[in-house]
Amino acid sequence: MALGNRYKSAPGSGTLAALILVLVFGSPWYADWAQDNTNPNSAGGWWLRLLSWPRWSFDTDDSLRDVVVGDLKAILVVVLTMLFLYLLPGSQLARARGTISQFLAGWAAYIFAGAFAALFATLFLTNPSLLGAFNAAGSGAGYGFFVGWIVGLASLGGWRGTR
């Protein structure tokens, strides 16, 4: 018996998609592969490199603070995606599952999560600045805009809350 949409929650499936995106594409192995094997001057190469934005690592060559900030950003993207999926009302107000509002709420949640994760992680850098925080939030929002449609598709069709 296949588990259909009856057992799928929109926030749960969107958070799972965010976790997979961060774990797989934020890994040091994927980031190194994308850096070495893609052309940053092509649209496909640019997008494949963008997928590795919330990098996490355990490289001993970096300072402990840099490793923690990078990992914090990756963790915050997932946690904030879950939070925003619960808080955004589009899916909750939809009359039927699978409507465009669920897709847009999932996509928006990932945009907000990327922006806020970058903003918060910047506060823990060695010399944080307001300009650095704004630049980081912009890059996080850009990442969420171009990758968040995947989270939007994952949250499409799920039920909200308790029945």
From TrEMBL:
Top-level lineage group: Bacteria
Keywords attached to this entry: Membrane, Transmembrane, Transmembrane helix
Membrane-spanning residues: 12-31, 67-88, 100-121, 141-159
UniProt name for this protein: Uncharacterized protein
